[in-house]
Amino acid sequence: MNIRLQLFELEDLRWFPHVIRQGMLDFLRFMITKLNAYEPILPLLQELLERSRQQEITDLCSGAGGGIASIREQLSRKMGTTVHVTLSDLYPNINAYQYLQENSAGTIKYIAAPVDATAVPESIKGVRTIFSSFHHFPPPLAQAILQDAANKHAAIGIFEGAKKSWLEMLLLWLLFPVVILLVTPFIRPFRLSRLFFTYIIPLIPFGIIWDGTVSLLRIYTPDQLQRMASKVETSDYTWSSGRAGKALGKQVIYLIGYPTGE
Fold this sequence. Notes:
44% helix; alpha/beta; Rossmann fold; globular
């Protein structure tokens, strides 16, 4: 699938009910964690941290923090040191962040104030990451995110948990409606609203299928990411893009960049 369409996702709409958005993001976090979807990019992220001589990740556009706890734990084991993560978003999901912080012994924290990924404050340090969210940005804003990282000499890793294929689209339509109904009672933190809007008025399943479909159509291919990176105005930055992983559900499109000499 080499096309990219800038369609709309429900969770991007300002008027979209928070309780439905939160339910959708909680499902995404649950599935990413259970599938260990981002395991294939752990070596890339480890290399990015080591090149930057850091053990701190600043996650931008965190949503509900999908999979970040597992990523942090696995990185810490691989690197033999404690990796810390700070979650941030333009619309922070405070309840989800508090849950992750409370269950991480303080190794995951969050920024309660809105953080714009196109203009990250100088005071926010660490290797920048964006998981499952970069496709939300149209090319001008996506370009601005990369330019901001380069301007501030910050290493950045962008990761999308998909191969971007028609098979994934078919599985989303046929399999995910059943999966949503089966796993929803096991998603934590527990919320009665999630059950109501899944089984009584199924707005959460509808939102997941719609946004999942649009996400696949919006994800940038590795070639598109590389072309975007080539337009970043800097003379001392290295970029690489590609696909990692082969197993279904564990294929990741990525773009990583870091200052030369870091």
